[in-house]
Amino acid sequence: MRQDPEKYLMFSNRLEKVYRHLKRQADRQGVGCYRIYDHDIPEFPFLVEIYESHIYVSEYKRNHTLNEEQYQDWLNQSMRIISSITGIPDENIHMKLRKRKEGRTGQYQKEDKERVEFVVSENGLNFIVNLTEYLDTGLFLDHRITRQMVREGSEGRSVLNLFCYTGSFSVYAIAGGAASVTSIDLSKTYLNWTDRNVALNFPAYTAHKSVHADVVQWLKEPVKEKYDIIVMDPPTFSNSKRMEGILDVQRDHASLINHCLNRLNEGGVLYFSTNFKKFRIDEGAIKGKVKDITKATTPFDFAGRLHRYCFRITP
Known about the structure:
The chain is an alpha/beta fold and 315 residues long. The chain has seven helices and 15 strands. It has helices at residues 5-29, 68-86, 144-152, 168-175, 188-201, 215-220, 249-261; strands at 33-38, 46-51, 54-60, 93-98, 117-122, 125-130, 158-162, 180-185, 208-212, 227-232, 237-238, 247-248, 264-274, 289-292, 309-314. It has a seven-stranded mixed beta sheet with strand order 9-8-7-10-13-15-14, with helices on both faces. The radius of gyration is 20 Å and the shape is globular. The N and C termini lie far apart (59 Å). The model is unreliable at 100-112 (pLDDT under 50).
């Protein structure tokens, strides 16, 4: 069964309306990387993000009744609509299918494609993004406000970035005048990416340290150093062969948070976040003061839909 032409018109109208609205806000705020669509219409299960002169399109896996030829026709027409409305040419639209791994992991597999890597800017800082090789692009757009919050509080402070991914929080902390920044992740690929982002922005900064470690186990080690600001955005679920045991953010968040609180200096702050939509924070098990800053840290392009919880926690 081919897609009803009215459905294409519905998709086109929806995308045009949202894009026009979000582009005005992005231009007003000087934002070049932002999300414009996230599965708004069931028949078009895409995530669409602008990265300056490029577009990242991720298709959520679903069961459909289209054969291969029909599916390709649907995909081509959908991409033509996206190109037409945004004015970004087809060759700058990068498509990916999000495939879940077998089992309970909830993680996605990356696809092997030709590398499309380039530098984008955000709030005067530069970040390397990759739109083809990995599940995520290298820059979590929903943390835009939280990053700026860390930047504004980092002057003269020691900052610890846990599950650092590609180090965007680390770069923002350095930009804010941090006395020192430590980035920890289990992935050597992401640590290398972090180092590249730091060097891209602050080649002369020598107080940044990358640590290759399982964050869960690292936090359980005896406290040798304390910090003024800690950022922790753990995966929802991980059973990586490189880590001991299994990480489940709902089950383990209180323990992780308490270990972080033990590593905070007096007057320090922990920014904890998770994109697990069913997450419920266990304030009774947390040995600190918890403030929900989810609404305050939700950017304009994520308004109206719950995408990530964020908390400011102090000892």
